[in-house]
Amino acid sequence: MGQAGCKGLSQSLFDYKTEKYVIAKNKKVGLLYRLLQVSILTYLVVWVFLVKKGYQDTDTSLQSSIVTKVKGVTFTNTSELGERLWDVADYVIPPQGENVFFVVTNLIVTANQRQETCAESESIPDAWCYTDSDCPPGEPVVAGNGVKTGRCLRVGSMQRGTCEVFAWCPVETKPRPVKPLLGKAEDFTVYIKNFIRFPKFNFSKTNVLDTNDRAFLKSCRFGPKNPYCPIFQLGSVVSWTGSNFQEIAVQPSGQQIFRKLNLLWVQLQAGKFSLIPTVVNIGSGVALMGAGAFLCDLVLIYFIKKSHFYRDKKYEEVRILRVLQGLAEPSQQGGTPEAEEAGQPEAHLRGGTRKGKGCAGQQHLQTPRSGHLGKGEVNVEQLQNLQTVDA
Q1: Predicted confidence (pLDDT) per residue in 142-164, tens digit
Q2: Residue 35 and residue 39: Cα distance in Å, rounded?
Q3: Rounded to an integer, what distance in angstroms lies between the CA atom of residue 263 and that of residue 240?
């Protein structure tokens, strides 16, 4: 690389290049551009920041623990069981301390059962028989209570009987009761302690009020006025799901209630303001703005009627004018316009100024019009249109 090339390279390091903007007076494209801007801005503010909270750094690695404990006793007096006191060891399954629990509210009692042979229930079709051959020994009764022994037992003169089975006898034959045995379980309480921690933010929280009053947990009940009491009444919990406790106590709908009670379990996500996601989302919005401008450029220079006009204005070709050849000719012939002007008497240039104080002088300095150029003279209008091209 020559000295001139190195000099030009070093000078170009300090050049500043900027884009050329063309203002297109086109209402349709302008309206399209504004609509795109408003849509992108609305998406960024409403959806990204307000709905999705794009200005936050989130933590989904939740650490949680749930402890449950049911409390309550009730008394029953039935012909099958007599007088009996029910506590948590009788009606809570599985044992206390798990994060789920099941409360027995109704049951069918078949007293004095033991393993021996007896007639299968008549409500089971697979147990019906007419002869002993209908009860092959060792075959289990489908949807029944035991295994067939090979005998067909009939009552009185009836032709159809039921197979004899080896099972817990007597087998269950009573219908489902219309009133729950443990209807007072509605007043039972359940202690639900929930602890959560987000390790990313080093944040932890519990649903138990931090107090030194030891009697607080013995007397409080969860409610709108006492949200930090972990004691829930079973009847209230069922009512929050839109169900009636006494109805489901007779005929439970466990799957439906379980889905509705998911509100008691942990499904959380923590968020905290962070500069990085905020800048990233704002940058994405700015990039979308640029995409909108690019789309409008395509419409402007390709899809409207006067697209060729706007295309010529946006993309301008720079060419070297032939006037430069006219400037080079005097130097090749041994002189330049400046040298010829220098050879003229000084009085010729200044005399007019002394005589007319500007009027005659202006005539000497006035540039000849196009078509009347002398040797080595250049039209000023051509010089104004001349565009310099960097080497």
Answers
A1: 999 999 999 999 988 899 999 99
A2: 6
A3: 10
Each residue of 91-126: pLDDT tens digit?
A: 888 776 566 778 888 888 888 899 999 999 999 999
pLDDT value, residue 117: 96
* Residue 371 burial (10 A CB sphere; 0-12, 13-18, 19+): exposed
DSSP string, 288-309: HHHHHHHHHHHIIIIISTTHHH
The stretch 57-64 carries a mean pLDDT of 80
pLDDT of 96 reads 64
d(CA 318, CA 388): 9
Spatial contact of 71 and 53, defined as CB atoms under 8 Å apart: no
Q: Which amino acid is at 48?
A: V
How many CB atoms are located within 10 Å of the residue 119 CB?
A: 20
Distances (CA, A) of 276 to 55, 94, 219, 300, 330: 8, 47, 48, 36, 65
Domains of the chain: 25-54+275-314 (1.10.287), 323-385 (no CATH)
